[in-house]
Design a protein that fits this description.
alpha/beta; Rossmann fold; eight-stranded mixed sheet; 51% helix; membrane; AB_hydrolase_fold; transmembrane helix; Dienelactone hydrolase domain-containing protein
Amino acid sequence: MASQSFFEGNGSFWKPVGNGSLFETVGASYPLYPRGVSSPGADITIFPNDTTVLTFDSTGIKLSLALPIISLLLDADRNIWPVSCTYPLSGQYDHLPRVLFYILIVFAILFRHRTRIAEAALGVVMSYSATACIHLFVLLGAYKFGLPWETLGRDVEDAKAYGDVDFWGIAPVVAVSAIVLIPILTWSESFKGSRGKAIIVYWSLLIFVSFAIICSYVYTFGTWYFDRIESVTSCKKSCPMSRSFVSQDIPLWNVDDYNSDECQCNDFCGLISPDAPLRKKQGMVPLLYYEPSQNHYCRDLNEDPLCIYPSAGARHLSLAVFSLWVVALFLGLLALLGVNSSSESVRNTIFRAANMTCRDVVTTIFKGQRQQAVLKKLRLQTPHRHQTAYRRFRRLVAKSVAALYYGLAFVGLVLSPVLFATSIIAIELFLGSISTSERSDAIGSWAPWVAAMLVLLSSAIIRLTRILVEIVSRTFTKIRWLIQYSSEERRELETLENRQSHVEPFLEESIEHVGYAMMHSYWYFAVRIKAFIEWWRDPEKYSVNEYRGHGVLEGLHGLDVYVAEPASGQPPKGFIVLIPDAFGWDFVNIQLMADNFARKKDYRVYVPDFMNGHSAPLYIIDKMKALEGKTWWDTLAKPYHGFWLLYAVIPWIIPNRFSKTFPRVKAFFEALRRNEGAHLPVGVTGYCWGGNHVVQLAAGHKADGKPLVDAAFTAHPSMLKFYGDIEKIRVPTSFAIPSSDPLMSLEQAEGTRKIVEALPDGQKGEVQIYEGYAHGFACRIDPKNADPEGPERAENQALAWFEKHFEGIVY
């Protein structure tokens, strides 16, 4: 039978069928089938007792092939039911691939400190969503960016007027990606310094452009109606249809009912193939609903048995989600402003720009003699210090605009989880009313899960291999010690080796990090709000041009690391690992020191995030200075400043206690020694919190028979146990101690000097006292002395120490 055309009846399914030509009788029926261009010569005769006779010329017809189909339709144990046929979602947007996409997004964010695995998950997310964006452009291009122009009805020849259901498969992928990007672009320090930042920025641009197009189409066309063509299906009479809606003998099929073994339905939707871009010769599939979508979208089936129109609740939810999408698009575009800076930096830049005077504009644009000439010409040589009413108003406007941006950045951070969850729920309810191309047990649905798991597994194998190698290495070391040493000597060696696990437990630490982040979210926001209040009181003070390190951020041995390369461009002559104070690896003063070390002596400097993102807020510096005040007002205010100081310090201590961080620090140095530092010297420098780790690393720990560090330096170390920790030192260690330090008195400094200077050659250390300086001076946060000479001297002391002890080291 030729399939050159289709025909559509103008009556109901139950219109009486008369005797005569089958061609004419079928031509007036409602369901749609392929048919020939002329009558096949078949006639139908219906007798009064409902006996029906079909006569036709069987010449040339292979009855052995045709009769099973006729038998299926005439089977007394089966019923013939109407069914709607539509084009399905393409396989990459089926249920399981979408769920995988959502899970990988959550995985990449929550476990972002597990660099390799998080990067693998993010890579899958980026490639999947970018492919969806390209599909969107191809699809809209094929439709000439003008779909759809029909609302109701059907067309069995050409479906282009109804658009393509894949638009709604693409929409959640792009929308969820855009929502997730808002906090990443605005707040993630790991992203802002990453070597792959350019790739993420280009991906962001692609996502937001696609998201804007989707929002435009949703606003213009709403949730339009797709080409739905009525056909029939043959199901067993025992089919329960318990979850399918039946109104006026027209079933609205539930996917579980239709695909159940009790029903065993067989439809003819695959015979219908209207012309549509990217779907050439593809057959339609039956329209099947998931139960939640059925209950949500199809309310009044007496008036709308085919569920053509969504329920009032569905319309309200769609409107709410669309409004949230518009908000997300706006917040995303704002987030793009700060891809190269922190939210605070963007806020400060906005304030400076909005508060600039004419003189500020001139000094920004022109430099040198030209600047002086322009200033003289405009009579602006002397800055105007007088605060007129206009200047105060300008300052208020500048503060307000900058604060508005910062507030919106916070709104984006707070709203992102809500937008994420709401968008997924709403779009999944809608997509539950659109048929998929394959069932969940088909390889096209679950194969992406396998592929994603293999990608994640390949990343994990790198880590697991290191664990296995370390276990084998330690086992052989224990066997060798058993043969070579006595029991007492072995106990001493094991003490030096440190029996704590060298390998940071992946799942335990990751869950702890996630739990900590969730439990301390209130603290995080409170600290940010407190810092914002300080900025509002004196925006000029906090809006000065900020230094940003010249290094880059990258993942190394499971941690985020700030890397400063030698400025000369020459290969590094050694490695220095800088362990920061309480303000963490992203503190600008720490990055400045790392850049100076790399610039002055051609070292490659690493500043790892040993705190896993739990660094202390910078406003602590101001609180420390406030506690040094001597006036009566300062004394009255000390309880207030002390409260905020404790409020920031106590939650910082919990995840950064030594027992939790030192195994992480030690594991990093072991990996560094076995890889990058296998043939070059490795040094360590630490400040305050990092100083304790430096002293512990200098206790003679080894990896593959080599010391973890060849030389060490620390300034104003804290939390040391005098003098037990000092007596364990077996690596040349240099101390820079201020004359005023509550964490290491001058008496303790002198005691330390006696111990380290009495060590044998190759282990002997030094202690230098910095008169007039206090704790924190080497990091340029001394509340008593802001003279830069002390920090510069400490920096040079460290470099001279490394130069002296790195000389001649060859592995």
